[in-house]
Design goal:
Pfam families: Methyltransf_31. This is Class I SAM-dependent methyltransferase. It comes from Methanoculleus palmolei. By secondary structure, the chain is α/β, with parallel strands linked by helices. The chain has a single domain, classed as 3-Layer(aba) Sandwich (Rossmann fold). The protein is built from six helices and seven strands; from the N terminus they run ααβαβαββαβαββ. A seven-stranded mixed sheet has the order 3-2-1-4-5-7-6, with helices on both faces. Helix 3 links the parallel strand 1 and strand 2. The longest helix has 13 residues. The chain is globular and about 40 Å long. The mean pLDDT is 91.
């Protein structure tokens, strides 16, 4: 179900994330599972791009690697096993253009830490697409998660429409000098 064709009817990776990705980007899929978004992301960033696929379950990463191999994009993906207490992604701090956190934050016990780690991984001007399922995550809980992202220093750029989800595209400002939140030209 999590990687099957029926899910693609509701959550087409190309429709949902293609507008935010381009050739050569470094992107991170947090809670990648079997690679439903990871493999299409690897195609979208092209041969010069990189996808960091983060999951807590070794079996999910192994399944994602098999899927990526069948789709001939495994060389663009770096599987990363995180811990229950941390994403352990410090080596990528400040290097990631785009982070996807799709229908997974509600499952994390230390959301504040995870949000800080995703924020740290992003380079200035980087973006994070955050979505939660309306069925499992009520508006109050979602608003609390979104407030945590704002408290970490991210700002809402837009609110994309994603079926059966509440979602926000957030950006890491380039400059915080005296309230300036846009990148200098």
């Amino acid at each position: 179900m999590l990687a099957g064709p029926v899910r693609g009817l509701f959550h087409s990776p190309y429709r949902i994330i293609k507008p935010y990705l381009s050739e050569g980007m470094t992107v991170m899929d947090v809670g990648c599972g079997m690679g439903f978004f990871t493999v299409p992301m690897a195609k979208m960033v092209g041969r010069t791009g990189r996808v960091i696929a983060v999951d807590i379950q070794r079996q999910m990463l192994a399944g994602m690697v098999r899927y990526a191999g069948r789709e001939t994009v495994a060389d663009r993906i770096e599987p990363h096993l995180c811990g229950a207490d941390s994403l352990r992604v410090e080596r990528w701090n400040g290097t990631v253009d785009f982070v996807l956190a799709f229908m997974m934050l509600h499952e994390v016990s230390d959301q504040e830490r995870m949000i800080r780690e995703m924020h740290s991984a992003l380079k200035p001007g980087g973006r994070l697409l955050f979505a939660e399922p309306v069925i499992h995550v009520g508006k109050k809980t979602y608003d609390g998660e979104l407030s945590g992202m704002k408290a970490a220093g991210l700002r809402v750029a837009t609110v994309p429409k994603i079926p059966i989800c509440r979602a926000a595209l957030l950006e890491k400002p380039c400059c915080m000098d005296e309230g300036v939140i846009e990148c200098p030209v």
